[in-house]
Write a structure and sequence with these properties.
Length: 119
Amino acid sequence: QVQLVESGGGLVQAGGSLRLSCAASGGTMAHYSLGWFRQAPGEGRELVATIAWAGGKTYYTDSVKGRFAISRDTAKSVLYLQMNSLRPEDTAVYYCAARGVFSSTFDYWGQGTQVTVSS
């Protein structure tokens, strides 16, 4: 069983930057892909970015391409989301999640961390 704990959220002005962290434990991370999702008030959860733990292949949703970067520290089993040029519409609760490399579904979730971007 994989456990995920997010941190690093907070309040930032538009145009600013924030780095989210997700500490992973309880599994062999090379057997998973990790992702960041976000959920704005009144909205469903949106996939933001994913990374294959083993090879580092990444995916980004169009709205964050060029602004956000997903990465991981394999030695520390920590997933990161570097968020630059933040916009008010990036305001959401951000969740990290994991899926098995042979699965299409994210089955393990963190508790979420709030990101608020002020205008």
